[in-house]
Amino acid sequence: MSNIPEIWTLVDEKQERLTALSDQIWDTPELCFAEVQSAAAHVAELEAQGFRVTASCAGMPTALMGEAGSGGPIIAFLGEFDALPDLSQQAGVAKPIPLADGGKGHGCGHNLLGAGAMLAATAVKDWLATNGLPGTVRYYGCPAEEGGAAKVFMVKAGLFDDVDIALSWHPGCFADVMTRSWLANARFDFTFHGKASHAGASPHLGRSALDAVELMNVGVNYMREHMPSDARIHYAMIDGGGIAPNVVQRRAKVRYVIRASSLADLLPLIARVKAVAQGAALMTETQVSIEALSGVANLVHTASLNEVMRRNLDEIGPPQFDEADLTFAREIQATLEDTDIANTCAQYGLEPEANRPLGDILIPKGLAPASPLTVSGDISDVSWVVPTAQLFGATFAVGTQFHTWQMVAQGKSPAAHKGMVHAAKVMAATAIDLFKDRSLIEQAKADHAKRAGKARYRSPMPDDIKPPVEMSAS
What we know:
With 474 residues, this protein is an alpha/beta fold. The chain is built from 13 helices and 11 strands. Helix 12 packs across helix 13. The longest helix is centred in the first third of the chain and has 24 residues, at 4-27.
């Protein structure tokens, strides 16, 4: 690892520009498939750094790819930049102060994710050029992770077919290589069509689509006792049929997310939820139309590649925070429940500590989590076709939960910036090891083939589905 200090220095040289990019994305939060300003900012920075840029990838206006170098191997860094609804929040304050009622916010740290991945890619590009070595670095700007599964469409379009290794990270509370399972999931809209009538004068002539939605929700709730314990089903009312209670609702829509530990478990669960919807339509004499919006596979781990990343994490050590960072983190922790902190620590196999405001330690290798991480992500589909390794970065106060105002409030903090740069150094150093020793790549590919090759990759999305680029508008 004699080149590690060199690659760390190359990351440090570009951290100011990429930290500014992260803050710029935080300032302009945009929902899935509508990340117009964010994508444009990423394109501009890639071009400024000397990447060859391809925009509007796989039929998605906000998907992009930057490439530098030539020849093989090809190592990809995956970034994201989409935000979430109803999470507007002022930065740098430890109390909920929305910037705009009902506004958007980066409640999953994707402003950091995209900029940090680009920082690593840029440093590796510079390292290859400085040392006159062959190899290609790619940065994939992936929109719509929150509900749109853009990477799945990128996989289907063949954008990863020639990639040798994929690397990424995600903001969190501790720095650690991701070795835990992620759930497969699918997202569907169920729209019920009934018949309107006067709810007082002629209720017997109406057929309520809202009743059908309510009955579907009840039916799915009864399913929960009879499905795998690590499966998850969530729903949100998209259209309740209007605001007039004296009109029988002729149309109503509910959106479901269905999660399971594997594609093998997910597909039959989807069929059961669809059957419940058909039953609700039958009971209410309505009709139901079902639209598939997105779906992702479970994550495939490549253990040998994780080991390369882990060695580099051990080499750099934990991120370093100062007293101002710790003070703000303690203020954030004061807004959390003890269970928030305990749950976060359990996910890493740690006992909660009363005075650990930030993740300034490395998680001991092999420590078994006491609590599963029941999340999903579209990078899972990439992991089926390319050996993939990911890192959690220590960017937020210990106990901070994803998709909360506390996450948004810390998104521009100096501690978040330090955690982002730290993650970029680990990813960049991992890539350097792979470029220097191609046997590591071959080992990763062999390992990946054993793990993913036994089960054929099947996307939970139908083959004919197109990217739902109008999702945010609807």
